[in-house]
Amino acid sequence: RGAGVGGASGERQAMQAHVSIILPVHNAEPWLDECLRSVSQQDFEGTMELSVFNDASKDKSGAIIEKWRVKLEDSGVHVIIGGHNSPSPRGVGYSKNQAVAQSSGSYLCFLDSDDVMMPQRVRLQHEAAVQHPRSIVGCQVRRDPPDSTERYTRWINQLTPTQLLTQVFTSNGPTVIMPTWFCSRAWFSHVGPFDEGGRGVPEDLLFFYEHLRKGGSVIRVDQTLLLYRYHLQAATHSVREATIWSHRVCFLEERALPHWAAFTIWNAGKQGRRLYRSLTAANQRKVVAFCDVDENKIRKGFYCHEDSQERPKPRIPILHFRAARPPFIICVKLDLTGGAFEDNLRSLHLQEGQDFLHFS
Question: Which of 13, 314, 324, 340 is 20 to 30 Å from 127 by CA-CA measure?
Answer without folding.
Answer: 13
